[in-house]
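Quick start: what a row looks like.
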Amino acid sequence: MSSPFALWPSPVTAASVAASTPRIDGARFVGDEIWWGESVPAEGGRVTVRSSAGSMVLPAPWSARSRVHEYGGGAWTADDEAILYFVDARDQRVHRLEPGLAPVPLTPAGPAHGGLRLQQGRLFAVREDLSTDPHLRALIEIPVDGSAADRPDLIRTISSGADFYAHPSLSPDGTRVAWVQWSGRRMPWDEAHLHVRAFDGGETVVPSRAALQPEWTGDDELVFSDDPEGRWSLRRVPVDGVATMGDPLIIAPADADIGYGLWVLGNRWFQPLDEGRIVAVRTEGRDQVVVIDADGGARPVHVPADGHVSVDDASGSLVLLSGNGSTVTPGVWLLDADTGVATTVTGGEAVDAAWMPAAKPLVVDGRHGPVHAFAYEPANPEVNAPSLGPAPYIVLVHGGPTAHVTGAASSAIAFYTSRGIGVLDVNYGGSTGYGRDYRDRLRGGWGVVDVDDVIAAARGLVDAGLAHPDRLAIRGGSAGGWTVLSALVRGGVFSAGISRYGVGDLRALVEHSHDFEASYIEGLVGPLPDAEALYIERSPLTHADRIRVPVLLLQGGEDRVVPPAQSEAIRDALAEHGIDHEYVLYPAEGHGFRAAETIIDALEREVAFLQRVWSH
């Protein structure tokens, strides 16, 4: 069959995308079973916990989801007796769920909790109280017997007074806790410090720059990740009580990162194993799982997952990994570090290459240095395409902006490529996964460097003869939406833009920003009030009259990160200047679309919008 690009008939429906995109949220060994968190799009995107025995451990309407630091993470854990501990999305209290019983609260009403860690039968968490000014956060230990549900005085405060906390870790002898904390004046990937405190008194700060995930490998040694040399690498530090004995020593350095932006509290990039070994994930665009021996030698192991892999749990030589992959669907895998064999626990199904094209890594020269991206060519085995010439492409801009994409297989991408629309997913300067220098490229340059880089990547496809120069669209969400609107203001490259809950006004973003990101924009643009003129100049809302192409705006009504007022201000400016646009508000959605009906409607609107624009 021959059919024009963007109009190919496809069996990949928006409904099938919504049904096939549950989010995996961690995995744990629980007795003889394996449990994992999984979103349920058909139930409004609530997060349940499932078991390898085939049961749903956490029934509706309960949902394991934290709002700590706004982005949450670490919302559930479990013990070997099949007792689930979770943060409920509705009240943000920690609950205990025993088999056959109803959940009971372990914490008082009011504060939010996240970053749960259960070790030696002791439950640790990050607590957040937004009812005070300034907001108060603390690292706490929660009694697991329920005695503190109405007695907050029974909750032990391990540390308070810092702006933010993450990654509590209990020493094997149960006498000390290590954790990471940082100031609200810096983001954790810029500066975060490792602390160790003894329960009977005494605390020390381990020399660190942007520390991640402390783990005890014995009573006298900590391992953590840090990037003083420019790549997050593992390092060991001997500990005597709370005193460190010398500077941390790097373990198996490589030109890759073990770690990335600490947006959520549940990520884990390595786990200590038996015999002094460590299993870790190295990232250089894509992920590679390695086993690091006691002597520092590292050997890769083959795991189908190679994107945003989390090393969730370990027992002896067995490791639980979750993530996505370039040739498989998102899933959970059980890795035997002795044999190097990974078996699938859930998900991880091989994708059909005829319908899901493999992402091709792309590097182009940009104004600020090399630009990394992944290109997905149009693919549909039922359509004869070779004679059709260069294809239309949609350029995707990830959010963050301190984040990255990995070239993963995705039904949402196949939704486009199977219809004859190529996809270019760009890791513009500022993205994680390529070291600190690449990440710092965006400092002071947000709205300039990111726009330059996505334009360079798009033009690279055109120069290679793959993309049609007049049929390039750009789509992004949140910070990616900012880049979309900024690129449309720049003009000259893209024939259409799709902004999902995108930022249009920097001053409004700062005014309404939650405190986790209160100083983020200062690093990306400049300090206020000194840089106010720059905030105005760079905001797409200031120059909306320069936009000359159609725009689709999609927004969640309950978005607290980028409120609807941002998209509505852009909508009104486009209307004032007579620019073709569509605005859709999803009243019950927050920052990111989770409900199946929203996912379906948004995708169908997007492709219909592009087909309409490109039909002229």
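That is the whole record. Residues 596-614 form the longest helix (19 residues). Residues 79 and 463 are 56 Å apart (CA to CA).
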